[in-house]
Amino acid sequence: MQKLINGLLQFQNEGFGKYQDLFETLAGGQNPAALFITCSDSRVNPNLLTGSDPGDLFVLRTAGNIIPPYKNALGGEAATIEYAVQVLKIPDIIICGHSQCGVMGGLLSPESIEDLHAVKAYLEHAQSCLSVVEQKHSQIPDSETRLARTIEENILLQLENIQTHPSVADAIGRGDLKLHGWVYKFETGEVSAYNSDQNAFLPLECNSPPIT
Ligand SMILES: [Zn+2]
Questions:
Q1: Is 39 an active-site residue?
Q2: Tens place of pLDDT per residue across the chain (212 aa)
Q3: Ligand 1 center–CA 174 separation, angstroms
Q4: Active site includes 174?
Q5: Which residues pair with residue 94 across a beta bridge?
Q6: Which of 49, 58, 90, 97 is the most exposed place for a label (fewest CB within 10 A)?
Q7: Of these residues, 41, 96, 165, 180, which one is catalytic?
Q8: Which residue ranges form the domains of the chain, and what is each CATH number?
Q9: Which of 96, 101, 129, 165 is catalytic?
Q10: Which residues, at least 6 apart from 168, have a Cβ–Cβ distance to it below 8 Å?
Q11: Catalytic: 137?
C-alpha cells in the first residue's frame, strides 16, 4: 500500500503538471474514442497498451471480461454500456481478453473455484463457450493451448452477449457502433483481433476490420 501512496504523492508533486491542460479541457466533458471492456487482471493496462491518454477510453472491467446478457442482470455492466452508447455515443466497443486469464482457467477447472460462489455464478455467463471449446478443440492435448482457445471463444461469446443490450443493438442497427474482439498477450505486448471473414484471431493491423 505504501508504494501506492508514495506514487500518488509523486504524481501530485511531479506528474500532474504535464496533464494539467488536458484535465482542464476534460473538465468541460469527455468524448472517449472507445468503450474498452477487459478483465480485472492487474497485468492488463488499457491505457498503456493502447498508448492512450486520460479521456480517451471509457473502461469497463469485469472478471474474465464477461458481459451478462441484458435480461439476466441489469447491474453495473449494463449501466456502463448503456451510458457509454446512449449518452457518450461511443463509436467503438473493444472486448479485450488476455493471456493467462485466471477466470478462464477457472472455467476449465471448476474444482479450483468450488468455494468461490460469486465467481461460479458469474461464470454461468461464459459456460456455453466451454461446450464450444469441447466441440471445436477437443483434440488439443496441452492445457496452455486449450486455455488460449477458451480465452478466444469467451470473447466471441461476450461479443454476442453485448448485442443483447438494446442500446448496443440499436446503435449497430443505425451504423453508429462497431464491435471489436481482441486478445492481449501481456508477456509480449502482442494483440490479435478477431477477423470474422477468416473466423480467426489475427495479429492486429491498421486495417483490421471490426466484427460489425
Ligand atoms: Zn483475466
A1: yes
A2: 999 999 999 999 999 999 999 999 999 999 999 999 999 999 999 999 999 999 999 999 999 999 999 986 689 999 999 999 999 999 999 999 999 999 999 999 999 999 999 999 999 999 998 888 888 877 777 888 899 999 999 999 999 999 999 999 999 999 999 999 999 999 999 999 999 999 999 999 888 888 88
A3: 32
A4: no
A5: 36, 180
A6: 49
A7: 41
A8: 31-203 (3.40.1050.10)
A9: 101
A10: 81, 85, 93, 162, 177, 179
A11: no
Q: Is the pTM of this model over 0.90?
A: yes
Residue 170 a catalytic site member: no
Q: How much distance in Å is there from the Cα of 23 to the middle of ligand 1?
A: 30
Active site residue 206: no
In angstroms, what is the span from residue 50 Cα to ligand 1's centroid?
18
pLDDT (0 to 100) of residue 121: 93
Q: How many angstroms separate the alpha carbon of residue 143 from the centre of ligand 1?
A: 16
